[in-house]
Structure to design on (311 residues):
């Protein structure tokens, strides 16, 4: 059973629309303002960032330009220079920046002791597929060109970034580029066609706005088939991928995106670890550590990273 703290926190998040003086969360449509949504994301992390990540102690923040892409290094004290986490920023492919991810992602850097490279991939609808994927592949190739060995790189991402993390693995493999040592996908969006049953069964308990996935899928896929494996990795041939840790909340619409991908990957011989958090919400591992389920999930992530990258 979920802890009391997690249930109370979920209650607060479920009623966050009241902070915007709205009686209920508005369902998305194609008139929903993407610039407004991006501003809301920035404001959300500005208000709650300290709660999620507390203070960023022992982390050096270094701006960077990675092959022309805005980027940022989060470097923990004592981190080895030759070991890197390449992080795929989430935000339904339409939002996400170093600024609104810095504090929560720093928890992974600090807990694992591995430097994180945050890269701001291009966003839809201005830049639909394959822009975000191309940017991730470019960033990975840049790390290789900098002398970082594939065995010392892990790709991590949440939400759309989790799906992008997995799609990047497929693209690297298909292009004959050496794969990273392992990957972590938090609540990954693996099926932009939204065929999973949880998109319906969890619609009333999921914290994500209704129809947001439908709108953002159209924006990202553009004129392409959303079932293309590099868009929706669930539909890919998953042979030859490195070990993957997948975490997902039991109460989110993307539950089946994780469970179905994990089952298919395992059937293809991939070493997959799947953790479904009972009663948990989207990307719960990144939430405050005073919630025991979130703390345990973050500990699992950092332990997984140390196993494969620190060795």
């Amino acid at each position: 059973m979920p802890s009391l703290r997690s249930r109370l926190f979920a209650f607060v998040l479920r009623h966050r629309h009241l902070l915007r003086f709205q009686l209920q969360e508005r369902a998305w449509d194609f008139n929903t303002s993407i610039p407004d949504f991006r501003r809301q994301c920035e404001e959300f992390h500005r208000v709650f960032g300290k709660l999620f990540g507390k203070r960023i102690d022992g982390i050096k923040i270094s701006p960077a330009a990675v092959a022309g892409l805005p980027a940022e290094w989060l470097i923990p004290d004592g981190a080895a220079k030759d070991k890197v986490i390449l992080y795929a920023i989430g935000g339904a492919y339409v939002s996400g920046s170093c600024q609104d991810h810095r504090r929560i992602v720093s928890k992974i850097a600090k807990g694992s002791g591995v430097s994180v490279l945050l890269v701001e991939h291009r966003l839809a609808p201005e830049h639909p597929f394959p822009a975000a994927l191309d940017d991730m592949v470019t960033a990975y190739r840049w790390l290789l060109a900098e002398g970082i060995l594939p065995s010392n790189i892990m790709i991590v991402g949440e939400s759309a970034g989790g799906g992008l993390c997995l799609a990047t693995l497929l693209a690297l493999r298909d292009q004959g580029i050496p794969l990273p040592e392992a990957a972590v996908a938090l609540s990954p969006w693996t099926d932009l066609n939204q065929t999973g049953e949880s998109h319906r069964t969890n619609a009333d308990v999921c914290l994500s706005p209704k129809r947001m996935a439908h709108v953002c899928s159209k924006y990202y896929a553009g004129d392409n088939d959303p079932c293309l494996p590099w868009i929706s990795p669930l539909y890919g041939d998953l042979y030859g991928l490195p070990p993957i840790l997948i975490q997902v909340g039991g109460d989110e619409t993307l539950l089946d995106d994780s469970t179905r991908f994990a089952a298919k990957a395992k059937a293809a011989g991939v070493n997959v670890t799947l953790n479904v958090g009972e009663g948990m919400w989207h990307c719960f591992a990144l939430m405050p550590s005073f919630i025991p389920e979130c703390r345990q999930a973050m500990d699992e992530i950092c332990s997984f990273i140390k196993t494969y990258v620190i060795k």
